[in-house]
Amino acid sequence: MRMCDARDNRRLSSEGDGRAPERRATAGRLVVVCGPTATGKTDLGIALARALDGEIVNADSRQVYREMDIGTAKPDRARRAAVPHHLLDVAAPDEAFTLADYLDRARAVVATIVARGRLPIAVGGTGLYTRALAQGFDVPRVAPDTILRADLDLLLGAGGVPALLERLRARDPRAAAVVDPLNPRRLIRAIEVAEHSEDKATHDPPSAYDALVLGLDGDAETARARADTRIDAMMEEGLLDEVARLRERGYDASSPAFSALGYRELWRVLDGEWTLEDALTATKKATHRFIRRQRTWYRREPGLHPLDMTDPALIAHALAMATNWLRSPESVRHLENDGPPSGHAEVAAPRSEILDGAGPFPTLPETPRAGSER
Length: 374
Hints:
Layout: E1 11-13, E2 17-19, E3 29-34, H1 41-52, E4 54-58, H2 77-82, E5 85-86, H3 99-115, E6 119-123, H4 127-135, H5 146-171, H6 173-178, H7 184-196, E7 210-217, H8 220-237, H9 239-248, H10 263-270, H11 276-299, E8 304-308, H12 314-327, H13 331-338, H14 351-356
Parallel strand pairs: 3-6, 3-7, 4-5, 4-6, 7-8
Antiparallel strand pairs: 1-2
Helix pairs in contact: 1-12, 3-4, 5-7, 8-11, 9-10, 10-11, 12-13
């Protein structure tokens, strides 16, 4: 199923800004596994990659940073060894990594995966990354403007988020229609890009992909509970020590990477401002707010096929959908209406093995490899 439709003839703004193309020839096939934090994207992506001869392309804006493994829920060594992973650990924590940077690298990686005759699978919860990649947004490169940002910070302090949104609407209504209106950082970046970008492209825009977008989610209470459990597990794994090591290496809490949830909160513990309990409470509350924003974003995602993260047959359902899509993209519509074909519904691995990493990777349902059909 094509990701693009008439609604996508627009610009998309955040850490960078992009122009969605008109309908045109696609750049190949791409599976996207997306959804809010702690919904099981990593393990579903790996299961699909193992079954469909695929490779994982990271689509999490914080997993690109080196030395930040626990707090970003980066795939562990066993998961990385199970299938090839790309675009993990490609930037230093104090290095700016924009949407334009991501798209340049991701498109190059996808091209090499396709050239090897394998299936690229973009996995992550940064909805801007997956949408811009799948839909072929053209992202202008605009360097940070510290003077403008200072002015916009003053505007934010005086008039709040509505004042930023009003300024963006005046400059670029299309960008204002798709940027996260509750995220001041992204609004400021969108204004920065809008005020420094030319309206005319000086090169051919990138192509969109023929993308199958699988979106994991569940009820809000379950999502919050799973996020809280994961945060507790991160602390047990040594997240506080990870933050301490980053401080010892000379990184500052204002570094771009430290906007990842939990890092600045624990920084305050190390500074003696907060107790560990204060930091945990603040991190969980911030994560709940983040999940709400993610869910709002994905409700507007064109062409998204929703999957219940608590479904015992999740992997089988997703695999059936992907296999049929590789044969015929239109068949996915029938799967959504009728459920998985006979023989797939009862063959999912136990969820405990998938979610907590305590056991082997899930046994996959028997399915023909689809490499010759891509």
